Every structure is written in structure tokens, then in C-alpha cells.
Amino acid sequence: MKTALYIAAAAAALVATGAQAQTHQTTNQRHYSGNVYHAPATNPGPNDTYFGQNLADHLDADITFLQIGTRYTATSIAADDTELATPTVANTFTLTGTVSRDCSFYAGNTAAARTIDFGTIGVRTGNNENVNAAFEMAGPANATVQTLTAGCNTNNAVEVAKNDIRGMVNANPGGYDTDEFQANIPYSVTASWTGVGLNAVTTGTPQSFTVPTTGNAGSLQQGAWRSAMEIAFNAPAITDRGLVAGSYTGTTTVTLRAL
Asked: Does the keyword Signal apply (predicted)?
């Protein structure tokens, strides 16, 4: 796959649809690229076997011991509401990826691999909450994307850019008291991999950088590399204001750019 990787982080809708308790939700994706012995496999289940062995276990053994093929996994998780909720909160986190001519990033076999649902971004909805805590986030929201195959075969830059420094933004919040509520959810992005310095000819070491909740973009230049790569998103719990109900959306672009 040859294109520059773009990862879109889209999160969540808070839409009132009646009193209903929110349940904890997670999304898991597990994709195998296939190898000389196997076709690609997407989310193999317990009934998928190969000569009597669980297919996922067999493909993991191929990757670990025979060093053939590769695997992509993606998970997300968010806290539930602390009490029975009146609003309905839905979160959509969409990752889209392409790979440029000089850089590669295995981003799964289908678009579903790059669509990650946060589930519920919980807020404190109990009627026994102190007024200073009501409607605040119940806990942080996190998502992690990992690929076992990424890299560039020349000097390159890893770049991370948000579309809005405010993070995920509610574009149509209606009216609200700005002393007590806010209509955005800041988040940080951390990229991690194994590589070398720009123009360096040496052994690879752990490399990473973070675009903080208060930042809009970041980058790191380096020499040719290939390794697993992890992109971690973290939206810390907002504890000084409540969240206005509505749809919150943010976009993050992650680019591997040949220099």
C-alpha cells in the first residue's frame, strides 16, 4: 500500500432521546494482511480454524516465528455515565489511511478498520451531583491505533496536525453560560515507533513525540525506518466545566512524508 497516511479523529454525538442508562462500549478490530500460505483475514472468530488450530493463533505464530505477514489491531474505550442518563451519547471516531509512494503504513484491509467508535463519552448526570460537578466528563476518553508495518525508505518526517486547536468541537451548541459550560473537548496525540535521527546511519531506538491538548501540530524528521507504529489519542476528563449537549467532531491528519 503506497500513500501518505491520514487519520481522521471524529468523535461524538450527545443527542437527547429519552431517559436511558448508557452501557459501556468498546470497538476491536483485528486484521491480517495474509502471506504466501494464507489469504488476508479480517476479525477471525473462534470458529475460524486452520487444520484444527484457531486461525488467529496460527497467523500470530506465522508473524512471530516465521516472520511472514503482518497484523493490524485497533481498540477504543470510554467511561460510562455515573448515573442514569437523560441524553443519548454516541461517539464516532473515524480513521482513514493511505500510503505514499515512498512511505508505507498498513492500515487494515477495509475501511471498517479505520472507523473506531468511542462508545459513550460519559458525563456526570446524577441528580445528587454537586452543582460544580454536574455534566462534567465522567472520565478520560482514549483511543489507540497500532500497525505492525510502517516506515519510509529515505529521510522523512512524521507529521501530526489537528484541524482545530480546541480539539473536538460542537459546531452547533446553542446558547450556554461560558462560565459553567464549554463546547469543545481538547485531546492530545502521541506517535511512537522505532527509528533513527535525520541522516543517521545507526541502530534504531524508540522515537516519539506528542501534540498536547494545547497544541495544534507537531513533527519529527528522521532517517529511513521500518517498525511497528502506535498513534494514541487522549482526551482528559474536563473537570472545571460541563459539556454542552451536541455533536463533537475533530480531525487529525498523520502524515509520513519523504524528504
From this structure: yes
